[in-house]
Write a structure and sequence with these properties.
Elements: E1 12-21, E2 26-35, E3 38-42, E4 51-54, E5 60-65, E6 70-76, E7 82-88, H1 92-105, E8 132-133, E9 140-141, E10 148-150, E11 161-163, H2 165-171
Antiparallel strand pairs: 1-2, 1-7, 2-3, 3-4, 5-6, 6-7, 8-9, 10-11
The structure holds zinc ion (2 copies).
One zinc ion binds at residues 118, 120-121, 123, 141-142, 144-145.
Protein name: FYVE-type domain-containing protein
Domain FYVE-type: 112-172
InterPro entries: FYVE-type_Zinc_Finger, PH-like_dom_sf, Znf_FYVE, Znf_FYVE-rel, Znf_FYVE_PHD, Znf_RING/FYVE/PHD
Length: 172
């Protein structure tokens, strides 16, 4: 198992980002911070967060445009209200860095290796029937039930990765 694959983004990313304000149809400069799975913004650098989003697979990208350097996504806030944020970055480098960090934060937490049975077929793991992790949901499955590979770009993978049968149905 490649250990680094389930380590989520732990480092901090912060800088000014233009955030679209639907009421006025204008972009407003905010100080954005991504720390682990918490994305938040404040009016200026180092002020208390005005609003925040929890980044996991429930955060769904609705627009990705490297040409206009914009990234839009939808998520549910703490009160279960659907929010849509649209961000515009200052450079291609910034856009790429934020896109990648958000995608890594969307990755599922992997189930522990102490799991004894495949969640798909309920058979015990053995020396010959080995454990694998579905990169899309993080559950532990056997090889027979994770034969498919998908390019999960919104989870920051740049090559096709192992996906369980349940996720294959969702993604197909
Ligand atoms: Zn199985
Ligand atoms: Zn899965």
């Amino acid at each position: 198992m490649k250990h680094d694959e389930f380590i989520r983004q732990a480092n901090l990313l912060e800088n000014y980002v233009e955030k679209y304000k639907a009421k006025t149809s204008q972009y407003v400069r905010k100080w954005f911070k991504l720390e682990g799975n918490i994305l938040s913004y404040s009016l200026r650098e180092r002020l208390d967060a005005r609003s925040s989003a929890f980044v996991d697979s429930n955060l769904v990208f609705t627009e990705k445009d490297p040409n206009s350097l914009t990234l839009a996504f939808t998520f549910l806030n703490q009160s279960g209200k659907r929010k849509n944020w649209k961000l515009k970055f200052a450079s291609v480098a910034e856009y790429t860095e934020w896109n990648k960090a958000l995608c890594i934060s969307r990755r599922p937490i992997w189930d522990p290796e102490s799991v004894l049975k495949c969640v798909e077929c309920d058979r015990n793991f053995t020396f010959f029937r080995r454990q694998h992790h579905c990169r899309n949901c993080g559950r532990v499955v056997c090889g027979d039930h994770s034969e498919n590979r998908f390019l999960l770009e919104d989870l920051a993978y740049d090559e096709p990765v192992r996906v369980c049968d349940t996720c294959t149905k969702k993604l197909s």
